[in-house]
């Protein structure tokens, strides 16, 4: 396996920080080397400098996409940090049900990885509204930087072991068994999710409408404070008055700097 020099690692780390906001610390050198090994071998690169030059010179952007797919960690699972989902069901949805007169409910799952979070939200919404759901436009925007993760999310196929945290009634109503090992999300729930590739480091967020709820959990843990503050500011501007921001329990916002009001650990609101 080709070794990466400190200089090469710094070059890659600076590129990742500038373009994707992710901080790669020196202790990640071995991890980066291992994840990029297959691409290095596939193209017969002799050094990481040669590979980096290839990324920079590729005008199609495909090399950069393949690179970030390898670098990013897309680890998630159903009902992760369940307190968020209970609060969303018991507090947020009842509030929005009374507040939104045109029944246009807008939710963004930012950093959706392999899709468990947006699918969980879609199932919660369907269960909460029941027959009334058909009178609502409640499609969820689910975005990620990784095309590989988005492809997996769109398939909506999960091992039956992965579905263990889900209520039995959900498994019956919202999943179809493929075989003894795998199940797939029903088309009715899949149709409630709009998957898109999106880089949270984009200078501008050109969404036509603001969101009532933004989930961005366990994403900003990879950002430094300046990057996180800038991103949260963009989220705030994109949040409807009275709307909510959910972040990961391992993350926090500086209450002196953010305009959001702290509601409970990892839950904030725009007042």
General description of the model:
With 271 residues, this protein is of the alpha/beta class. The chain folds into two domains: 6-71, Chemotaxis Receptor Methyltransferase Cher, domain 1 (Orthogonal Bundle); 82-269, Rossmann fold (3-Layer(aba) Sandwich), CATH 3.40.50. It is 42% helix and 17% strand. The chain has helices at 6-20, 29-43, 48-57, 62-71, 82-99, 116-129, 147-155, 168-174, 187-190, 225-237; strands at 107-110, 140-144, 157-159, 175-177, 182-185, 193-197, 211-216, 239-247, 261-264, 267-269. The strands form two sheets. A seven-stranded mixed sheet has the order 6-2-1-7-8-10-9. A three-stranded antiparallel sheet has the order 3-5-4. The longest helix has 18 residues, at 82-99. The radius of gyration is 20 Å and the shape is globular.
């Amino acid at each position: 396996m080709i070794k990466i020099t400190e200089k090469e690692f710094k070059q890659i780390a600076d590129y990742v920080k500038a373009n994707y906001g992710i901080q790669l610390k020196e202790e990640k050198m071995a991890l980066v080397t291992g994840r990029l090994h297959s691409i290095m071998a596939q193209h017969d690169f002799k050094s990481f400098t040669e590979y980096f030059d290839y990324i920079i010179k590729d005008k199609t952007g495909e090399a950069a996409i393949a690179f970030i797919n390898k670098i990013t960690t897309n680890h998630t699972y159903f009902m992760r940090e369940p307190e968020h989902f209970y609060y969303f069901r018991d507090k947020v949805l009842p509030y929005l049900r009374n507040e939104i007169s045109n029944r246009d409910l807008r939710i963004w799952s930012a950093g959706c990885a392999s899709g468990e979070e947006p699918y969980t939200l879609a199932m919660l919404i369907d269960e909460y509204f029941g027959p009334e759901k058909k009178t609502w436009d409640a499609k969820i925007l689910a975005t990620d930087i990784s095309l590989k993760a988005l492809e997996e999310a769109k398939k909506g196929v999960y091992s039956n072991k992965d579905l263990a945290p889900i209520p039995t009634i959900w498994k019956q109503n919202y999943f179809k068994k493929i075989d003894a090992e795998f199940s797939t999300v029903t088309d009715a729930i899949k149709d409630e999710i709009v998957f898109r590739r999106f880089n949270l480091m984009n200078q501008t967020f050109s969404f036509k409408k603001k969101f009532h709820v933004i989930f961005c959990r366990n994403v900003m843990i990879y950002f430094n404070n300046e990057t996180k503050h800038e991103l949260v500011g963009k989220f705030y501007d994109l949040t409807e008055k009275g709307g909510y921001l959910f972040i990961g329990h391992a993350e926090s916002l500086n209450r002196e700097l953010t305009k959001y009001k702290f509601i409970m650990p990892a839950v904030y609101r725009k007042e």
